Amino acid sequence: QVRPVESGGGSVQAGGSLRLSCAVSGSIYCRNDMIWYRQAPGKEREFVARIVSTGSTLYPDSVKGRFTISQDSAKNTVYLQMNNLKPEDTAMYYCNSGNCQGPWGQGTQVTVSS
User: Fold this and answer.
1) What ranges make up the beta strands (E) of the chain?
2) Buried b / exposed e across 5-21, counting CB within 10 Å, b at 16+?
3) b/e per residue, 99-113, with b = 16+ CB within 10 A?
4) Label partner for 88 (CA 20 to 30 A): which of 10, 20, 48, 56?
5) How confident is the model over 26-34, as a mean pLDDT?
6) Would you state the pLDDT for residue 75?
7) Phi, psi of 104, deg, nearest 5
8) Residues ≥6 apart with Cβ < 8 Å to 37
9) Rounded distance between C-alpha atoms, residue 38 and residue 44, angstroms
10) Tens digit of each residue's pLDDT (9 = 90 or more) over 71-91
11) How far is the C-alpha of 55 from the C-alpha of 32, rounded, in Å?
């Protein structure tokens, strides 16, 4: 399991940028597949970005071209660079392992105003 600690959220205007960080502990196997999720009030948690051991990344159409997921070389931190933010990106953002999901962290709030 991983134990994620998310940070970097905030309030921005539409078109702005934020970079989220997720500090993770756990086995390298768990850290080789990391996913960012988000959950807006009253909605289900949804997948936002994924990075696997090869460095390959995956995004849903809703964020493709605007969000970029990356990891530091030791894979202790996962980042989510978010550009051209839209009001519909407003949500609590979480990260977790795709290989061995652990307890959810506290998340980090992103609020985008129009």
Assistant:
1) 5-7, 10-13, 18-23, 33-39, 46-52, 57-58, 67-71, 77-82, 91-97, 108-113
2) bbebbeebeeeeebebb
3) beeeebbebbebebe
4) 56
5) 91
6) 79
7) -75, 140
8) 45, 46, 47, 48, 93, 94, 95, 96
9) 9
10) 998 879 999 999 999 999 999
11) 9
